[in-house]
Amino acid sequence: MRRFLSLGLLCLMLLGTAVSAQAQSSSSTPDDQAALALLTALDVDSYRDKGEAITAILQSDDERARDWLQALLDGRLQRTDDGRFVLVLDNRGRDWPVADALTNEPLGEMSRRDLDRIGINNALRNQLRSAIAVVDLYSPNVERRRTSADRLLGEVDGELAETLEPVIADAEDEYVRTRLAQAVAIYRAEQGEMAGVEALTGSLHPRARVALGRAANSDDPVVAEAAATALAGIEQQLKINRGLETLYFGLSLGSVLVLAAIGLAITFGVMGVINMA
């Protein structure tokens, strides 16, 4: 009888563990099942596979994607011992308040020893920053969209360039559209493409000049010559701008000195120190 009781108790313990491990998936909707699969793909040892999982999250159009990506970048996307994915709300102290990554439901506090952080490397951090910037391009906040577009300058790769093409076509904000076009052009110029060099001609942005400098060293003599010509034109424009800036500051300082001299002359004239006549 004791043997049967022990066996039954063991079965109950195993069943409880299995139920706990499947709690996050069994109580979720089909959309949450797909989301759980996306998060599970991040919990692997291969950084390459994690990069592919980040791309999948970016392309999922899930409204929770930005929170997941930001939490992963900040080290706040973690997994419990029973396989549940949680978002750490505050990582100070010994016990951390957490929320369910799928439902955002608060789960109370958990010991940090019971949580496993999903590790990333520097390459994935750069990928995450770019991915978050792409998500922010669809934000209803204009300033966030513009900041996101600025952040992508010099951070675009081949895959991201293809992703941004339809975004550029659909962008209603002229600033965002121009910045994204420059970001793609910088990538194409660095790859030695004539289209990128032509698009950056006349651009005074520092990243554009860097890209043109690399294109000027291209093995294609036509591209190299076009990039060198574009750089020369930009340098000439910068010289003109610096000259105008110097002239402006000189006139500003000169006007201040003239006003000071007039004021002193009037003051000393009233005091009789100098002859105003």
Short description:
By secondary structure, the protein is of the alpha+beta class. It is built from eleven helices and five strands; from the N terminus they run ααααβββββααααααα.
Describe what you observe in this structure:
There is one protein chain. This protein has a five-stranded antiparallel β-sheet with strand order 4-3-2-1-5. Mean pLDDT is 82; it is low at 1-23. β3 and β4 (106-111) form a beta hairpin. Helices cover 66% and strands 8% of the residues. It has helices at residues 2-26, 30-42, 47-58, 65-74, 122-136, 142-151, 158-170, 174-190, 194-200, 206-215, 221-271, and strands spanning 77-80, 85-88, 95-100, 106-111, 115-117. It is built from eleven helices and five strands; from the N terminus they run ααααβββββααααααα. Among the domains are: 28-122, no CATH class; 149-237, no CATH class. It is flat. α7 packs antiparallel against α8 (174-190), α9 (194-200) packs parallel to α11 (221-271) and α10 (206-215) packs antiparallel against α11. With 277 residues, it is of the alpha+beta class.
Lay out the secondary structure:
Layout: H1 2-26, H2 30-42, H3 47-58, H4 65-74, E1 77-80, E2 85-88, E3 95-100, E4 106-111, E5 115-117, H5 122-136, H6 142-151, H7 158-170, H8 174-190, H9 194-200, H10 206-215, H11 221-271
Antiparallel strand pairs: 1-2, 1-5, 2-3, 3-4
Helix pairs in contact: 2-3, 3-5, 4-5, 5-6, 6-8, 7-8, 8-9, 8-10, 9-11, 10-11
Q: What fraction of the residues are assigned to beta strands by DSSP?
A: 5-15%
Shape: flat
Return the average pLDDT rounded to an integer: 82
Structural class: alpha+beta
State the order of secondary-structure elements, H for helix, E for strand: HHHHEEEEEHHHHHHH
Strand order of the largest sheet: 4-3-2-1-5
| Helix content estimate | 55-70%
Major sheet, described briefly? 5 strands, antiparallel
Total DSSP E strands: 5
Distance between the termini: 125 Å
Helix count, per DSSP?
A: 11
Q: What are the segments in which pLDDT stays under 50 over at least 5 consecutive residues?
A: 1-23
C-alpha Rg (nearest Å): 30 Å
